[in-house]
Structures are given as structure tokens and as C-alpha cells.
């Protein structure tokens, strides 16, 4: 895979792809895919600028992309690109979040030392032009993702759905069930779950759905609960407040934290200013 990567000049391939006579079509493609800046323009914004309907902009984009595909699909660099991406996806369980993929490919191709959004956009552009691997566009809940086949993509979405509906809020139990049911490794499961914007890691390293308290505590009292749960022993409210503030963007006054401890039945005062969990 490394040998193939070093033979590919991604920048040159993109330049060849953009050798389009229709300057308007070229500009629309560049801006729709964010090939010169990370920002990607909508059909509506380009239509307003060019005095065209959204549908007309879409037609120009589609026609331009078709012409690009016909011109570069048999290029040696294009064939190497397809071979590299297929081998890469095979090595990472056949599906990968787009920004993770771009970071890995940049290192392989020695294109960038670290992730760069325009490089990611260029990879997505080439894949869409060539028609493979497949790309799922970003949605409200899912990151942009690459995949080799629909079956793998469907399984990833199924496991994400299972996590979001998992009532026990126990990630280890969830992982065990999925591992046994589908005979796949934990690294594969984590790769699938990384596609979801609703999967994350909490302040103490607990993984799971972002609506789980120990992954994404939102209120002062939930952060206090998590701090005490993690500590496993009683703490003075000043120490609890310090830990709450470590989880917060805006610092909370010690008195504010103390008031939440007093009001919430999950906490029990066991000494002067010292609280434990009522469990």
C-alpha cells in the first residue's frame, strides 16, 4: 500500500481533473467541493451569485463532473488512486470516517504531516468523480464517511442505532453483545461507531452515546455526581466544585455547586461540607 501511495501525486491528479474549458463549470466544482478553501458553497449561494436557479447550478455541476470522469478515469494516477483507497479501506474494516481517512492517506502519500481539510475535500472529490469507493455525505448525526460496500455501511449504521437505543448505558456490556453477535473485534466496532456524531468519550474516559450522563454530563449536578462516582469516596464540596469546573467551559462558583448538592437527593451530607452519593 505504501508503494502505491508514493507513486500517486494527488495534487497533480486534481489539477488534471480541473482542466475544464467551461470556466463557470470549473468554478462551480471547485467551490462546491472546497478544493481551494475548506468552505463548500451551496447550490443556492452559487445560483444567487451567477443569477441561476439551484437546479441549473446542479445541472452544470453534474455535467462538469461527468466530463471530468470521462477524461481521467483511465489515467494511471486515477487507477492508482482507486487501488490505494480500496486497499486502505480493506485494512480498516471497509469503512472509515472521512477526516480519519484523510489524515492516514496524507501520511502515506507524504502530502501533509497532519490533517488538512482541503486535502480531505480533494480526496472526496476524486472519489465522487471516479464513482468509487462510495461516500456518505455528512448529515446532522453522521460524519462524512467512505465505504466499500453497502452491507458494511448498513452494519455500521445498525450498530450505531443499537448504541443510541441501549437502555443499560453500559458500554462494556454493549461491546460484549455486539462482539459475540457479529464476531467482530472491538477495534472494528469502535471504527464503525466513530462515524456517529452521537458517540463520544467522557471526561473520565468512558465511551458511549453522548446522551449518557457519564459521557456527556451537561448540568452542574450531573458533573458533581460523575465526579463523586469516579472518586468512589466522599469529598468536600470545594473539591467537588474544582472537579466540576474541570468539566465546564465556564467556571462555576463554589456556592453554586454547593447549592446543587444540597438540593439533589443523589447527594448526602455526611460531615461539615462533605458529601457522598446516596447509593
Main features:
279 residues; HTH HARE-type domain-containing protein; DNA-binding transcription factor activity; three-stranded antiparallel beta sheet; transcription; WH-like_DNA-bd_sf; 9% strand; 3 domains; RNA_pol_sigma_r3/r4-like; 14 helices; Arc Repressor Mutant, subunit A; mainly alpha
Characterise the protein shown here.
With 279 residues, the protein is mainly α. The protein folds into three domains: 1-148, Arc Repressor Mutant, subunit A (Orthogonal Bundle); 152-201; 220-277. It is built from 14 helices and eight strands. The strands form three sheets. The protein has a three-stranded antiparallel beta sheet, sandwiched between helices. The chain has a three-stranded antiparallel beta sheet with strand order 6-8-7. Helix 3 (23-33) crosses helix 5 (54-72). The longest helix has 19 residues, at 54-72. It starts with a helix and ends with a strand.
Per-chain topology:
Elements: H1 2-7, H2 10-17, H3 23-33, H4 43-50, H5 54-72, H6 76-91, E1 95-97, H7 98-109, H8 117-130, E2 134-136, E3 145-147, H9 150-164, H10 171-182, H11 186-193, E4 199-201, E5 207-209, H12 220-231, E6 235-236, H13 237-246, H14 254-263, E7 267-271, E8 274-277
Antiparallel strand pairs: 1-3, 2-3, 4-5, 6-8, 7-8
Amino acid at each position: 500500500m505504501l508503494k502505491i501511495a508514493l507513486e500517486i501525486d494527488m495534487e497533480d491528479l486534481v489539477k488534471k481533473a480541473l482542466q475544464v474549458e467551461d470556466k463557470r463549470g470549473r468554478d462551480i466544482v471547485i467551490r462546491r467541493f472546497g478544493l481551494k478553501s475548506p468552505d463548500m458553497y451551496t447550490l443556492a449561494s452559487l445560483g444567487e451569485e451567477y443569477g441561476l436557479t439551484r437546479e441549473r447550478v446542479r445541472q452544470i455541476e453534474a455535467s462538469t463532473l461527468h466530463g471530468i470522469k470521462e477524461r481521467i478515469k483511465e489515467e494511471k494516477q486515477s487507477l492508482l488512486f482507486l487501488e490505494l483507497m480500496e486497499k486502505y479501506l480493506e485494512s480498516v474494516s471497509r469503512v472509515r470516517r472521512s477526516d480519519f481517512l484523510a489524515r492516514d492517506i496524507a501520511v502515506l502519500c507524504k502530502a501533509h504531516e497532519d490533517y488538512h481539510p482541503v486535502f480531505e475535500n480533494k480526496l472526496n472529490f476524486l472519489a465522487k468523480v471516479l464513482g468509487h469507493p462510495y461516500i456518505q455525505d455528512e448529515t446532522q448525526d453522521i460524519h462524512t464517511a467512505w465505504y466499500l460496500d453497502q452491507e458494511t455501511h448498513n452494519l455500521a449504521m445498525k450498530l450505531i442505532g443499537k448504541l443510541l437505543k441501549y437502555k443499560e448505558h453500559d458500554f462494556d456490556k454493549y461491546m460484549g453483545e455486539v462482539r459475540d453477535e457479529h464476531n467482530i473485534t472491538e477495534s472494528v466496532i469502535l471504527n464503525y461507531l466513530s462515524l456517529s456524531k452521537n458517540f463520544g468519550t467522557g471526561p473520565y474516559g468512558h465511551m458511549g452515546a453522548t446522551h449518557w450522563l457519564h459521557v456527556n454530563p451537561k448540568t452542574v449536578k450531573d458533573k458533581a455526581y460523575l465526579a463523586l462516582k469516579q472518586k468512589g469516596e466522599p469529598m468536600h464540596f470545594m473539591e467537588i466544585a474544582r472537579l466540576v469546573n474541570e468539566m465546564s467551559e465556564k467556571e462555576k462558583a463554589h456556592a453554586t455547586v454547593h447549592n446543587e448538592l444540597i438540593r439533589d437527593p443523589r447527594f448526602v451530607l455526611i460531615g461539615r461540607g462533605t458529601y457522598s452519593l446516596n447509593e
